[in-house]
Amino acid sequence: MKKKIISAILSSAMVLSLFAGCAVPATAPAPAADSAPAETEEAAPAEEAGDTAEAPAAEGGKVFGYTCMDGTNPFFVALEGSIREVVESHGDTLVSVDPLNDSNTQIDQVEDLISRGIDYMFVNPVDADGIIPALDMLKEAGIPMFGFDTQVGDMSYLVSYAGSDNFNAGYVCGEDLAKKIPEGGDILILDSPTMQSVVDRIEGFEKAIEDSGVKFNVVGRQDAVGNLQVAQEKCTDLLTAHPDVVAIMGGNDPTALGCLAAAEAAGVSPLIYGVDGSPDVKALLKDSALEGTGAQSPMTIGKTIAETAYAWIDGQDVEAFIPIETFLITADNVDEYGTDGWQ
Predict the structure, then answer these.
(1) CA 115 to CA 103: how far, in whole Å?
(2) pLDDT tens digit string along 44-96?
(3) What CATH class does 2-164+298-324 carry?
(4) pTM of the model
(5) Which fold is adopted by the domain 166-297+330-336?
C-alpha cells in the first residue's frame, strides 16, 4: 500500500513538473515547436513572438517583464505568482515568458519583451553567462533589471538581487548525510553546471561532507537538473552502473523526485536529498527514500524582489544582494511546515 501511495504521488509530481503551467493561471502551457514563446498576461491573450505592440497596462501603469529558467517548475510557478501579486496590487502589469530551460530562447524572448515597451525586468537566467547578451540589450534600452533565485554571470547589470542562500541549502543536506551515514560510502550527484544556484548548492553539499571528515566517494555525476522525467532517466543510468550507492544528491526537488522514481524501479533505497522544500517532496519524507530537502521559500523570494523594485522606483536606497534564509526539512520536522503548500 505504501508503494502505491508513493507511486501515485510521484505520478502526480511528474505531471506538475512537466505541465504545472497548464493547471496554474499564472503560467501559460508550453508552446508547440512552431508557436510563439510561452508567455502570460493576466486578462490578456498571448501575442505572437515578434509582435512589437506595447504590452497592455492600466493607464499610467508600469509594465514589468519576467523571465525564469523553467516556468513549468512548481517552484517558479509559486515565485511568479508572488511577484505578480505585488505588481498587480500597484495597478501595474506583469508580462511573463518561459524559455523552458533554453538559453537562446530566453534571449529571443527578452528581446521581444523590449520591443513591447516594458519598463522594468525581473530576471532569472537559464545560463548565468549565456544571459549576458539579453542583459546587454536591456541595458542599452535603459530598462532596470532585478534578479531573483539564480545569479547572472555579471551582477553589475542588476539593480538588486534576491535569492536563497543556496550554498547553505546544499550544506545542510551534506551535514545531515554525514551524521546519518558516519561510515561513509559511494554517492551520486545530479547537478547543472550552467545554473549558478545549483552550482552553489552542490558546492555547499560537498563542503559539508569535507568538513565532516566522513569519507564519501562521488562515483557518478550527471548534468540532470531539469524536470522529473529527465532526472529519472539520467539517474537510472547512474544506478545501473552504481547500484550500491548509499546516497544521492539532487540539485533541486524535481531532480530528487526523478531519482526516487529511478531508485524504486531499480529496487534500491539510497538516502536521497534535494533542494526546494516543495510540497511533493515534503509529502514523501516519512514514507520513502527521500531523506531531506534544503528548503527555500519561492513566495518570500518573489515578494522580496518585487517590493525591492518598487522601493527603488520610489527613490529609496536598496541592497544590491538580498539573501533569503534556507534550512533543512526532514521527516523529523516536516510537520512544522506542512505538506500542502510551500513554506
Answers:
(1) 19
(2) 333 333 333 344 444 569 999 999 999 998 899 999 999 999 999 999 999 99
(3) alpha beta
(4) 0.80
(5) Rossmann fold (3.40.50)
